[in-house]
Design brief:
Strand 1 and strand 2 form a beta hairpin. This protein has twelve helices and eight strands. The protein is about 40% helix and about 20% strand. Helix 2 packs across helix 3. The protein has about 260 residues and is α/β, with parallel strands linked by helices. The two termini are about 30 Å apart. The chain has a single domain, classed as Alpha/Beta hydrolase fold, catalytic domain (Rossmann fold).
Length: about 260
């Protein structure tokens, strides 16, 4: 079991494949197992794929909150240190995309290329989720892990996936339930996400950037992805119809496009 140390917090990480390194950063309440579809796709494309469990989830420590975005970005940098990497590509989704923005601004010399999936710049200009989605975020903390993952299905997956590919959803949920989320660290991560606002600094990002979003995302509106692509110099925006928040399950071609972008370095 490989671990990194970030200011006394132990973080689990793993590595798959060979080639240019890419660090994957997962979203709210999820851990490295959430990348189970993406990791082999990127490794088969000739990348060395590093994934880790954010503080509070999976096999990493669960220190008491509050958590901050700076803290979570420093955790990601600590994983690069543990892997003896000065630089890597970075691919973050949702909360992980917010952490990736922070990493690119806080530690710009560590980031080669950047993929920001299903995420937001934050701030007053960003598009907030619908009230029912915000209410769900809070309600989820009171649910058991099993209840939470199934209750999340309408928010995470496209209508097509829910109608035609229930087996894909069940496979994802089996992975997520290997290391169930607990209420306190979930709320600590949520607090960090709700406080995220890098909208005024994204013009300073120098890493070539691909922004990816599902057109049916009700967790984080695609308008936020478009805004990211406008704020980051020379960023490219890729939107996938028939895909929602967990677009890499809904539309596997999204990860292939990310792999091509990362391999273009």
């Amino acid at each position: 079991m490989a671990t990194a140390n970030s200011s006394g917090t132990s973080l689990y990480w793993e590595s798959t494949g060979d080639g240019p390194p890419v660090l994957l950063i997962m979203g709210l309440g999820m851990n490295a197992t959430g990348w189970w579809r993406t990791i082999p796709r990127l490794a088969e494309a000739g990348l060395r794929v590093l994934a880790f469990d954010n503080r509070g989830v999976g096999r990493s420590d669960r220190p008491e909150g509050p958590y901050t975005m700076a803290m979570l970005a420093d955790d990601a940098a600590a994983v690069l240190d543990a892997a003896a990497l000065e630089r890597a590509h970075v691919y973050g989704i949702s909360l992980g995309g917010m952490i990736a923005q922070e990493l690119a601004l806080r530690h710009p010399h560590r980031v080669d290329r950047l993929v920001l999936g299903a995420t937001t710049p934050g701030g007053e200009r960003s598009v907030a989720p619908p009230e029912r989605t915000l209410a769900f975020f809070q309600r989820r903390a009171e649910m058991t892990a099993l209840e939470a993952v199934w209750a999340s299905v309408p928010y995470n997956y496209s209508a097509r996936t829910r109608a035609d590919h229930g087996d894909w959803i069940a496979q994802d949920i089996a992975q997520r339930l290997r290391y169930p989320i607990e209420s306190a660290p979930y709320l600590a991560q949520l607090q960090a996400a709700m406080g995220h606002d890098r909208s005024g600094q994204l013009g300073d990002v120098r890493a070539p950037t691909l922004v990816v979003h599902g057109a049916e995302d009700v967790m984080i509106s695609p308008e936020n992805g478009r805004m990211l692509a406008e704020l980051i110099p020379d960023a490219r925006f890729a939107e996938f119809p028939g895909a929602a928040h967990l677009y890499f399950t809904d539309e596997p071609v999204a990860d292939r496009e990310a792999a091509e972008f990362l391999r273009a370095a």
